[in-house]
Design goal:
With 119 residues, the chain is mostly helical. It is built from one helix and no strands. The radius of gyration is 51 Å and the shape is rod-shaped.
Length: 119
């Protein structure tokens, strides 16, 4: 019976072509995994940026809508003021016209009454 020494080393087993192919495949997969992880990270960054841009655009749109609404309200208010001024001027003109024609109406009434008295 042969006794082996404790310090005896075994020679590493010979690697087959399949082992080399598996090792290379593993290295290729690790490289591909790193690329996929980098792409995932970039995609997440881009997605985050797109969401930020979308929020900013929505805020800008709301600001523009509020400004548009303010301008529209201001134009409506100005139009109402113009219409009110036009009505006030028309009422003033009618009052002035009524005041100017009142003495003539009184004179006409007196004339007609006097004229009617002769007949």
């Amino acid at each position: 019976m042969a006794v082996r020494g404790q310090g005896g080393r075994r020679a590493p087993p010979k690697r087959s072509d399949e082992d080399y192919e598996d090792e290379q495949l593993l290295l290729d997969l690790e490289t591909e995994l790193k690329q996929v992880q980098e792409l995932k990270s970039l995609t997440q960054q881009h997605l985050h940026q797109v969401l930020q841009d979308q929020k900013q655009l929505e805020q800008q749109q709301r600001r523009q809508q509020r400004e548009h609404d303010r301008q529209k309200t201001e134009l409506q208010r100005e139009q109402q003021e113009k219409e009110a001024q036009a009505r006030a001027q028309e009422a003033k003109r009618r009052r002035e016209n009524a005041i100017e024609t009142k003495p003539m109406d009184d004179d006409l009434d007196a004339f007609l009454a006097e004229d009617g008295a002769y007949y």
